[in-house]
Design goal:
mainly beta
Amino acid sequence: MLNYLNKIFSIFLIFNLTFVSSAQAAATFVDSFSVVTQENNPTGLTFNNDGTKMFVSGNAGNDVGEYSLTTAFDVSTATFVDRFEVVNEDNNPSGVAFNNDGTKMFVTGFTGDNVYEYTLSTGFDLTSTVSFVDSFDVSTHETAPGGLTFNNEGTKMFVVGENFKEVIEYTLTTPFDVSSASFVDSFDVVGQVWRPRDVAFNNDGTKMFVVGHNDEVDEFILSTGFDLSSTITYVGAFNVSTQDDTPTGVTFNNDGTKMFVVGSGSGNVNEYTLSCAFKVTASSTCDAPQKIKEVRGIVDAQINTAKNFAKDSRQSALKRLANLRAKDDNKNARKIELNFQNETLNKISNNVLSSAPAKFNPIQKLDQILPNDWAAWSEGSVSFGKIGDNPLSSAQDMTSLGISIGADKKTDNDKVSGVALRVGNTDVDVGTYGSKVDTNALSLSVYGSNSFDDRNFLEHVIGASYLDSDITRKNQGNTNTQTGDREGKQVFGSLNFGREYEDGDVIITPTGRIDGSYTALIAIQKMATKRSGIMQDIKFLMASLGVLIDQDADLENSNVRSRINLEYGKELGSNSKVVTSYVSDNENFEYQADKKNKDIYTVGLGFDFKHDHGLTISTDYQKQKIRYIGFINKFTLSAGFLSRNETEFALWLDEDMTSNFKISKALGVFDLEFNLENDFSNQENHNANLSLSSKF
C-alpha cells in the first residue's frame, strides 16, 4: 500500500455538491424583493463580500440604494438602509460596483458616458463619508454604458453598452483606479443579446454572463479568464421574462449557487438557485469544484493543517535542544503543564488528549521506565491564525492545541539523543457558512544534536505522524450539509545548524534550517449513500535563516533568560495535485494547489524563569506572517520543577473509555497534582484538576 501511495500524486476530493446530475436544468426561481418604494427604475445590482448588504442603482432617484440582509444572499430578508445620490455626476446611473474591501464605489452613467469613482470612509457603508474622486470617459467605445465589473485584482475593468452592443475590456495600471484605465479589446454580443445592460463573471473569469432586454441571461465561455481576446464560445440563454421582461442587472453569490437579476419592468430583485456553481443554462456545465471558494478553502485547510502539525512537532523538539544548549546539564528537564482558566486552552483536555489511541494503554510512570541517565520533558502550546479570504478560496480561521512529551540523554561528548511524542488537535473554520476541518493528530519523532566544538552545533529531527480529519461542508444559501472522514500518514524532518557568539551576558546565535515533510492523505468520504476513496499528497520544503538573541539576568535566588528570535523562510518546493469530481457524474477536474513559493517572516519573544528552589516557568509568543496570504500566532506556556526524582507522569485509558493524563510532584510536605480526564464515549465529559495537599 505504501509503495502504491508513493506513486499517487493526486487528491480525489469527492464532494456531493448538488445531489443531481450536472446535465439537469440549472436556475430555479426562489423569491423576489421589491425596491420600487426607493427606486422604480432599477438599473444595477451588487452585494458586499458576505452577502449581508445589497446595493441597487437607479435612474429614477439618480442614486445608489443600500439594503441590509439579515440572512446572507437572501433577498427575502432585505430592508432599506440609506441612499447616496450621484446626480451631481450623472442623472442617469446605469450600473454599480465596488472594489474588494468596499472603500471604493464605481457608477456608470448614460448621460455622461463615464465611469465615476467614489471613496467611502467605511467599506460598503453609504452612511459613511462618500466622496467623488474621478471619472473615466468610455464614449469612444460606448455611448450608452450599462453595467460594469472588475477582475479579482482590479487590474481589468469591463463595461457593457446598449448602443455598440459590446463588452469592453480596459486595463488599469493601478488597481481599482479608473484614471489609470486604457482600452484593450471588445467582444460583440449583438448576435445573442439585444440591448445588453449588464455583465458578470464567475470567480476565475472563464464564464461570462450578459443580461439584456431580450429577457435573458446569456452565458459565454472564455478560454482564458478575464480575457476578451481569447476564444469566446456562446453556451446558451436562461429566460427570466416570467419574473421581469426588462432585466437590467445580474450578479451571483460567492460560490455561484445563487443568481440575482434586477429589472426595471417589475422593480424587483429576483433570486434564483443554481444546481451547481455558475450553471445558469440547461446546456451549460457545472464549474469545476475547485472554482467553488468553499471547496477550495476546505482543500487549502487540509494542506495547511498537515504542514503546521509537522512544523509544531519539529519545533517542540528543536526548542528542547535549544533549552539544553542554554543549560549546564539536562537534569532540569521536566516541565509540568498547568490548567489554563480559559475556554480555548481548556479544549486541550477535550480534543488533544482524546486523540491518543488506545494502544498507548497503559503507559507506566516515566520515572520507572527511563534509565537514570535520561531526562523527561513536556510542553503545551496553542496556536491561532487566519488565512484571508480571496476571490478563489474562502477564509480559514485556525486554532491548534498540542502537547509534547519527550525524553533524552546527553553524553559526555556533548551529543544529545531523544524521542518525543506529540498529540494535537486543529480546528479550521472555513468561510462563513459553517464548513470546517477538525483534525486529531499524533506524531513520534527522534531528535539529536552534535556539537563540533563549544559553540558550533548541528541538530536534527526525524519523525512520522498519523492524522484523522472530520470534514464538514455547508453550501452557501442552503441547509445542505456534507460530511466526510480523512486519514493520513506523514513523515517529516528538520536540519538546524548554527553558531553561538557570546558577548557578556548576551548570546547571539545565527542559524540556518531546512524543513521538509511529505503527507499522504487517504480517506473514506461519505456523501449521501456513496463511499469514495480519496487520496492526496502534500509535499513541503522550506529553507530558513534566522538569529536568536538570549540574555541572562541573575536575580536573588533566581535567574531569568529572555530571548528574541527573528527568521526569514522561503517555501520552495510545496505543491499538491488536486483532482476533484462531482458524485453525480464521472468527470474529473484537476488543478495544482499550494504551488506558489511563499515568503514567511517570523518574530518570537520569550523568557525562562528558574528559581533556586526548583520552580521553572517558560513562555513564548511567536508571530508568523505569510506574505500576501495570512498569519499564524503561537503561544506556549509551561511550568515545572527541576527535581527529577519526585515527579511522576502517567497516561492511561480505562476500560470505560476514559483517558487520563496525570502529573504529580512532591514539594516537601505537600503533594502537587495535575490531572486531565476525557471520556471517549461522551465528548461533553471532560475535567481538568489542579490540587495541592498535605498529609498529617
